[in-house]
């Protein structure tokens, strides 16, 4: 191959510009503009809202979906009151029910009760939020249990089906700021992996229609190989790390789950103080904060949600815009990890600091000590720990910091489960340690993250 041709390819791969059709797109500018949106509203609303199911059964009667008072303008005004500058809406979740009249399926809003035949909730949403001056994004699950778009069943027919739905979403609703794709190469569920459905297949399709629409893959990985923006789900210990430089967003919930369930109208919501601290931490670490607020089965935000979002807006000051993107470095760079043991090479100690939910640490079966230690190489100041395990096993544990030659107790707890999250007094130390005191079986620890809010 000609040396000049090789050089040209290298320049194109390293350039912040992409050629889409005849248009040159500066991806760095697009990403910088996105990070300067800072604060967004995630909106989980779909068939699961009417079933009390977070992952809805994929063959419910479409007529079960019946919003009696749907008002997307109310959602938009609620987001505006909180100071949110963009939103992401669940057009289709894993069960495959589409909230627009898709031409390639009858499992959609047009097949619900006849009075909803002409209701396009995606349009209601995009119009309402644009009118409120809020950028619009869409959530779309590639994993579609109703239509058989699942791992082991990926063929040209269902890839074409997926592309057709993406074409509809990116053609009929104006400029879409970002599309958050779920169930694709993810740790959870049974969606397609990147071998049977390569990332480039859908990324190229999306950008052929909307070159500036950011593809944000919800795949539980902390790198940019399969996404333009890393999405930290804030579960199983995954959290924006203290040294994050990767363009990202973090997505927690205001209520206790993603989709609304009965009783949530009286639920104690995430506190204003927690939201403000999480938002400020994310924004100061090159990450947006995408807070989920779920509408109820009437199609409205509950009064407690409206009040809390207004309180958050009154207490929030959005940080100044970024002027340029940082040089991207691996997370937890320079941090070393030691453990009392590892059950196998694939379950090594470093897995707890990679922000990747596909990797885990597990101690040996006969290990009586069961500890894992993070050495930050120089003193670091933290006041919060986030950790999570794969499958429930831990029944008692403690977290300590090494100060003045002794281990000082910071947190003692019972179950870690999928997302243990606790504050402690602000501490400066070089070494921090998790010790498992009691477990029902050999535990797997997915992530162990220390931050300062």
Features:
2 domains; alpha/beta; TIM Barrel; 453 residues
In a nutshell, what does this entry contain?
The chain is of the alpha/beta class and 453 residues long.
Question: How does the SSE layout of this entry go?
Answer:
Elements: H1 3-14, E1 17-20, E2 23-26, H2 27-35, E3 39-43, H3 72-82, E4 86-92, H4 121-131, E5 135-141, H5 156-171, E6 178-182, H6 199-209, E7 214-217, E8 230-232, E9 248-250, H7 272-283, E10 287-292, H8 303-315, E11 336-339, E12 371-389, E13 394-403, E14 406-413, E15 420-439, E16 445-451
Helix pairs in contact: 3-4, 3-8, 5-6, 7-8
Number of helices: 8
Number of domains: 2
What kind of oligomer do you see? single chain
**Percent of residues in beta strands:** 25-35%
Q: Give the tally of β-strands.
A: 16
The separation of the N and C termini measures 53 Å
CATH architecture of the largest domain: Alpha-Beta Barrel
Helical content (DSSP H or I, runs of 4+): 10-25%
What fold name stands as the CATH topology of the largest domain? Answer: TIM Barrel
Mean pLDDT: 93
- Our Rg estimate from Cα atoms comes to 23 Å
Write the H/E string, N to C. HEEHEHEHEHEHEEEHEHEEEEEE
CATH level 1 name of the largest domain: Alpha Beta
Low-confidence stretches: 1-15, 20-24
Structural class, please? alpha/beta
The biggest beta sheet is recorded as: 8 strands, parallel
Query: What is the general shape?
Result: globular
User: What's the CATH H-level homologous superfamily of the largest domain?
Assistant: Glycosidases
Strand order of the largest sheet: 7-6-5-4-3-10-9-8
